[in-house]
Amino acid sequence: MNPELQEKILAVTRCGVDRHEATGFFRVALGLYYLSGLMTKETLDFKRLDRQFNRFIYHTIGKGHSITSILQYMSGEKVVPVLESKRFLRAFGEYCTEVPVENIPFLLGLNLSVAKDISKIDVRGPVADYIERQRQLREAAEEAAQAAAQATPTAAPDAGAERD
To answer: In three state form, how does the secondary structure of the chain look?
Structure first.
């Protein structure tokens, strides 16, 4: 983890209004960066990658936390208030531009599918419901944009123009 990435995550963390909220912001921002880093064709050295993330986590929020516990947090119901926080979304969008906010539902789905494969847990629940709500909102917005584009009148030929 480079210092620039660490500072971006810490900037999001500082947007939390209290320790509890800031810790949630930290966990989600870090988890999203970790998950987005998995989206590569390059071979990843997970041992090295996890060690780097775990070192940063330990120095930031203390012992007892790891990238594994953060990913578990991101598959549970406690993550939903962070994901629905306008303050978090605004901060994440401002400071963490490498991971577009609109990719969050996809990354959460990736995390859930990995959790399902590893733990054989049922992934239905609050996070899956959040992902579904986001899909429905995105589709409704796309439909509204298409309807608005179709409703825009096209320019009529100039009535006063001479015809051949």
So the answer is: CCHHHHHHHHHHHCCCCCHHHHHHHHHHHHHHHHHHHCCCCCCCCHHHHHHHHHHHHHHHHCCCCCHHHHHHHCCCCCHHHHHCCHHHHHHHHHHCCCCCHHHHHHHHHHHHHHHHHHHCCCCCCHHHHHHHHHHHHHHHHHHHHHHHHHHCCCCCCCCCCCCC
